[in-house]
């Protein structure tokens, strides 16, 4: 009975102290319950999301890219099946011997093996490593033959971009692996990082990339804490990218490319009413397929170090002084500004002294008495020195800009250059010097500071050919049919010979801008260009075409260096000069002469004179173009333009 | 109340069965059943090793619980010192013959069970100190001479367990012992002195430890030192519990546990798994059962006449409550991960054995509450 004796106070003390403990317990109970409420009720949503994030991993895969077709539906860039070989390291029994076997079967280089091994060590053992993303059929079948001995490898059939021919390489561009810069520039790529996805780098591939790339598909797997796939939860096939039909004619692309073979230069063809770019070819070309799976170093060096810069799209990035092709604009500007009239004559003796400098005509003996029509037809430099002198550079530059020079032609082509339309203000700002009068004279014949792209010249010429209306070049077919009505308008106008201005008002107010004050001036220039091609003495008379294909064009020869007096006296022939010093040959034309539809510009770098090397190319392209006209119209009339 | 003062030295088996606290027994049984389901889930929805052995252990130890409770309280009073000494001897054996697992030497490999003596010490120390304070008069409690013996009895096992190293268990052992000392009426100032002494001696004690032991302790004190260890576990546990929501993801549907995000899911984190699958209501059910058990033990302590019985029941109730809340606080991210199992639910033989023994002695107090001690 020890416990009971004298234990009363002891037991009371124990009870008191237990009471304190119980109070403390109550606090603990509340905090545990409170925590449960906070986690499982208040923040439950947040933790559910976190749990799902834990649980699922997505493997993204690239969708097939949209196809690019020409106007007639021929594929220019499409997709082909490719055979890929993936290796999942953790599935391999003996990784080293497997790699050794693959090396023998696929004849991989030591460097390639080194890359693969580095890749394997940099990622998780269950993540696939791409051994090859483009196996040939024989490699693929050899792998399949030995497959039972190659545990851990997976042959996979996938799709990749294919370009069917080289002539359109520049305008279409190419796709390649995503770079850091692409990720910065193109926001939509950020959630598109799928294995094997390619992004457009240049040309239309780049411009239309966000639409053509499609939606990335994904496989969703449940994974465990170590990242190993447990089971496939869902699969989304992604969406094939949007396909586009372009305004290009693949036949013309091929022909132009053929004609430019061995030369550096470009051909541009445009519908003068719709602005459709029917051909845009740059030479020399390259094989865009090489970029799809990563170009090898040797090929890359070759492209980069090539004298004629094959990667440059010369039609929109090549800058050339327009030479005599600018004379149509000089004439229009002078006539529009009432500086001169078509009847004014000048005497050409082969050269002229002005401002203490001697200015030469291309024809040493001179043209004699020249009026404006003859000056355009025979491309008399002396006449245009005189016109330019009176016109002044600033007024000339306004007209030139109106006709499209110095502007970007096609949206979304990062590689396109704007060029230079010189004037006094431009020179002050960019060069920091004031304008010399002598420079006006050089500018009057398209030399000096001018920098134009072949596509700009093509558009400039198109806007002369269509009677002086502004058009906008386009490469991709869309629903805007603005220029259809321009065509209709020009047609209608012929029936209103005594135009009261009513029709013009309606159209010009609502549809498009007329670039002239007096259309007679435009028509005069067009008629003079007829003479240049179809009358003896005209600069491109040698490249004229028979009756049904009659066209009108203007040659141009732009100097890349200044002649010294001595060279002039020695009459050094262009062909005798080093390649880099030879003149660029230019030619712009519209066809057919009567009722024109198309404008063309041809530039041959260091090709000598426009009449000798550029016009003959244009002649062949025009012939083909006109032959295919009815075919193209048929497509258009069947409403297949959209 | 029974007839006061009457000495019932001979209770029949029937008396003993009717003397059982039914609420306590049913609560224990329910937790046992819940733990079967939880264990079944950790086995991936299969009736596999952990489930089987957990059920066997529960059945064996639950039977042991009844046996212990039918044994006279006087027997437990008299054997308190030998029991303590045997467990202490086992702890020393662990030092030399113990099995090492994940860097800690805690187990004795007996042929039928891997015994973890530190778990048994949780109960053994309470039993020992309850007897000690039962024997001395309330006037002596605060005399320094009478403080030395309990302090030594407490420190030896705690130090042995710390150096295993097993901080969680040593803390729980120490806590159980301190509660007895506190309830016995030792003045607050002694606890203050002890606390101060601990604070000053801890850095010196740590400097004697081996590097890996040191790093474990430092990680315990600052979990961010080891973000993928303790921090990762807490984060994943919180995600699992939080994502359970009000009603849970459903039995066998706890993705966090299934996909191995949960560490130690059948031992320390069993509550996390259960909470993920059964949500807030499930968690509250389990927690309520534990509170109910605690409350019943306190209630039994209330009705026991001897101060030994009172000291033991109150202390064990408090210790039991702390085992539960430390485990829950840990998995809920309220306190650092210390490695403390959830009584009855966690997989582990020694832990369950200790709890069942402890509860058995509580029940023995209830059945034999009128019997004299000594």
What report would you give on this structure?
The complex is a heterodimer of chains A (642) and B (374). Chain A is 41% helix and 17% strand. Chain A has 642 residues and is α+β, with helices and mostly antiparallel strands. Chain A has two domains: 58-245, Penicillin-binding protein 2a (Domain 2); 312-637, DD-peptidase/beta-lactamase superfamily (Beta-lactamase), CATH 3.40.710.10. In chain A, strands 2, 3, 4, 5 and 10 form a five-stranded mixed beta sheet that branches. In chain A, strands 12-11-19-18-17 form a five-stranded antiparallel beta sheet, with helices on both faces. In chain A, β2 and β3 form a beta hairpin. The model of chain A is unreliable at 1-6 (pLDDT under 50). Chain B is globular and about 60 Å long. Chain B is mostly helical and 374 residues long. Chain B has one domain (13-367). A three-stranded antiparallel beta sheet of chain B has the order 1-2-3, with helices on one face.
- The shape of chain A, in one word, is elongated
Radius of gyration of chain B: 21 Å
Q: Percent of residues of chain B in helical segments?
A: 55-70%
Distance between the termini of chain B: 22 Å
Radius of gyration of chain A: 36 Å
Tell me the domain tally of chain A: 2
Contiguous uncertain segments of 5+ residues of chain A: 1-6
The CATH H-level homologous superfamily of the largest domain in chain A: DD-peptidase/beta-lactamase superfamily
Number of helices in the DSSP assignment of chain B? 14
Q: What is the third-level CATH name, the topology of the largest domain in chain A?
A: Beta-lactamase
How much helix is in the residues of chain A? 40-55%
Short structural summary:
The complex is a heterodimer of chains A (642) and B (374). With 642 residues, chain A is an alpha+beta fold.
Secondary-structure topology with pairs:
The complex is a heterodimer of chains A (642) and B (374).
Chain A: H1 8-42, H2 44-55, E1 56-61, E2 68-69, E3 75-87, H3 95-106, H4 110-122, E4 129-135, H5 137-146, E5 153-163, H6 169-172, E6 175-177, H7 180-185, E7 198-200, H8 203-207, H9 209-212, E8 217-223, E9 229-236, E10 244-245, H10 250-259, E11 265-271, E12 277-283, H11 289-292, H12 297-305, H13 314-317, H14 327-336, E13 346-348, E14 351-354, E15 357-360, E16 368-370, H15 372-377, H16 381-391, H17 393-402, H18 424-430, H19 437-444, H20 454-465, H21 482-495, H22 502-510, H23 519-534, E17 552-558, H24 565-570, E18 584-591, E19 598-604, H25 610-627, H26 629-637
Parallel strand pairs in A: 2-10
Antiparallel strand pairs in A: 1-8, 2-3, 3-4, 3-5, 6-7, 8-9, 11-12, 11-19, 13-16, 14-15, 17-18, 18-19
Chain B: H1 13-19, H2 22-42, H3 49-70, H4 73-97, E1 99-101, E2 104-109, E3 114-115, H5 117-135, H6 144-162, H7 167-183, H8 188-207, H9 211-221, H10 227-244, H11 255-258, H12 270-303, H13 307-331, H14 349-367
Antiparallel strand pairs in B: 1-2, 2-3
Helix pairs in contact in B: 2-3, 2-12, 3-14, 4-5, 4-6, 5-6, 5-7, 5-13, 5-14, 6-7, 7-13, 10-12, 12-13, 12-14, 13-14
């Amino acid at each position: 009975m020890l416990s009971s004796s004298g234990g009363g106070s002891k037991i009371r003390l124990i009870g008191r102290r237990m009471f304190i403990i119980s109070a403390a317990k109550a606090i603990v109970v509340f905090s545990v319950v409170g925590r449960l409420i906070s986690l499982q009720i208040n923040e439950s949503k947040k933790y559910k999301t976190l749990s799902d994030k834990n649980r699922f991993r997505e493997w993204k895969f690239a969708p097939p890219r949209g196809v690019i077709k020409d106007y007639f539906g021929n594929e220019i860039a499409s997709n082909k099946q490719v055979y890929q070989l993936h290796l999942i390291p953790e599935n391999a029994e003996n990784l080293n011997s497997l790699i050794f076997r693959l090396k023998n079967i696929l004849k991989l280089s030591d460097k390639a093996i080194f890359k693969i091994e580095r890749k394997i060590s940099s990622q998780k053992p269950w993540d696939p490593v791409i051994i090859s993303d483009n196996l040939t059929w024989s490699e693929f079948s050899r792998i399949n033959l030995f497959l039972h001995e190659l545990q851990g490898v997976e042959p996979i059939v996938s799709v990749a971009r294919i370009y069917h021919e080289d002539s359109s390489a520049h305008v279409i561009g190419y796709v390649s692996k995503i770079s850091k810069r692409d990720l910065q520039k193109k926001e939509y790529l950020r959630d598109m990082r799928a294995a094997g996805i390619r992004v457009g780098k240049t040309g239309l591939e780049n411009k239309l990339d966000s639409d053509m790339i499609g939606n990335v598909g994904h496989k969703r797997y449940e994974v465990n804490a170590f990242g190993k796939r447990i089971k496939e939860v869902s699969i989304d096939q992604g969406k094939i990218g949007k396909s586009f039909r372009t305004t290009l004619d693949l036949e013309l692309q091929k022909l132009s490319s053929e004609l430019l073979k061995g030369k550096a230069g470009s051909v541009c063809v445009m519908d003068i009413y719709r602005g459709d770019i029917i051909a845009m070819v740059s030479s020399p070309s390259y094989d865009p397929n090489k970029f799809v799976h990563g170009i090898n170093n040797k090929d890359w060096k070759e492209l980069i170090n090539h004298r004629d810069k094959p990667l440059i799209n010369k039609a929109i990035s090549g800058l050339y002084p327009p030479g005599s092709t600018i004379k149509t604009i000089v004439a229009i500007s002078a006539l529009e500004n009432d500086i001169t009239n078509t009847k004014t004559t000048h005497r050409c003796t082969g050269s002229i002294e002005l401002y203490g400098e001697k200015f030469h005509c291309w024809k040493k003996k001179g043209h004699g008495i020249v009026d404006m029509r003859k000056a355009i037809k025979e491309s008399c430099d002396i006449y245009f020195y005189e016109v330019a002198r009176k016109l002044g550079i600033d007024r000339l530059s306004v007209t030139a800009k109106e006709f499209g020079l110095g502007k970007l032609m096609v949206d979304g082509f990062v590689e396109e250059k704007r060029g230079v339309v010189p004037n006094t203000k431009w020179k002050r700002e960019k060069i920091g010097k004031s304008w010399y009068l002598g420079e006006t004279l050089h500018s009057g014949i398209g030399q000096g500071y001018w920098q134009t792209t072949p596509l700009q010249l093509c558009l400039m010429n198109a806007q002369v050919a269509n009677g002086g209306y502004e058009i906008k070049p386009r490469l991709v077919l869309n629903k805007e049919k603005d220029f259809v009505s321009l065509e209709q308008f020009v047609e209608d106008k012929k029936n209103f010979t005594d135009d009261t201005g009513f029709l013009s008002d309606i159209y010009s107010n609502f549809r498009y801008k007329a670039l002239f004050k007096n259309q007679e001036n435009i028509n005069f220039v067009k008629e003079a260009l007829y003479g240049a091609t179809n009358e003896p003495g005209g600069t491109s008379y040698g490249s004229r075409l028979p009756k049904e294909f009659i066209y009108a064009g203007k040659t141009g020869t732009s100097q890349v260096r200044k002649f010294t007096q001595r060279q002039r006296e020695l009459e050094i022939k262009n062909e005798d000069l080093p390649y880099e010093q030879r003149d660029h040959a230019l030619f712009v034309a519209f066809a057919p002469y009567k009722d024109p539809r198309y404008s063309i510009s041809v530039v041959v770098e260091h090709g000598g004179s426009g009449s000798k090397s550029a016009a003959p190319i244009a002649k062949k392209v025009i012939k083909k173009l006109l032959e295919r006209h009815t075919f193209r119209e048929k497509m258009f009339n069947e409403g297949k333009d959209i | 109340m029974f007839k006061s003062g009457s000495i019932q030295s001979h209770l029949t088996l029937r008396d003993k069965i009717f003397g059982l606290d039914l609420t306590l027994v049913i609560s224990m049984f329910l937790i046992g059943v819940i733990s079967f389901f939880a264990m079944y889930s950790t086995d991936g929805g299969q009736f596999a090793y952990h489930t089987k052995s957990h059920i066997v252990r529960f059945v064996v130890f639950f039977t042991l619980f009844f046996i212990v409770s039918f044994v006279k309280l006087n027997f437990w009073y008299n054997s308190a010192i030998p029991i303590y000494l045997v467990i202490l001897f086992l702890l020393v054996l662990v030092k030399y013959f113990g099995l090492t697992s994940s860097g800690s030497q805690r187990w004795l490999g007996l042929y039928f069970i891997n015994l973890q003596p530190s778990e048994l010490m949780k109960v053994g120390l309470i039993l020992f100190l309850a007897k000690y304070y039962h024997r001395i008069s309330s006037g002596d409690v605060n005399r320094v001479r009478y403080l030395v013996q309990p302090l030594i009895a407490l420190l030896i096992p705690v130090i042995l367990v710390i150096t295993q190293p097993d901080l969680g268990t040593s803390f729980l052992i120490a806590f159980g012992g301190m509660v007895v000392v506190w309830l016995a009426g030792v003045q607050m100032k002694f606890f203050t002195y002890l606390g101060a002494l601990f604070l000053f001696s801890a850095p010196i004690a740590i400097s004697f430890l081996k590097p890996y032991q040191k790093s474990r302790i430092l990680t315990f004190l600052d979990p961010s030192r080891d973000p993928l260890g303790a921090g990762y576990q807490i984060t994943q546990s919180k995600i699992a519990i939080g994502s359970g929501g009000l009603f849970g993801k459903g039995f066998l549907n706890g993705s966090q546990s299934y996909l191995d995000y949960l560490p130690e899911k059948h031992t320390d984190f069993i509550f996390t798994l259960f909470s993920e699958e059964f949500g807030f209501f499930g968690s509250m059910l389990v927690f309520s059962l534990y509170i109910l058990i605690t409350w019943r033990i306190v209630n039994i302590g209330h009705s026991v006449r001897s101060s030994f019985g009172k000291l033991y029941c109150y202390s064990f109730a408090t210790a039991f409550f702390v085992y539960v809340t430390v485990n829950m606080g840990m998995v809920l991210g309220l306190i650092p991960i210390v490695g403390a199992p959830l009584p009855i639910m966690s997989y582990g033989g020694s832990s369950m054995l200790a709890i069942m023994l402890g509860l058995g002695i509580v029940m023995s107090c209830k059945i034999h509450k009128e019997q004299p001690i000594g």
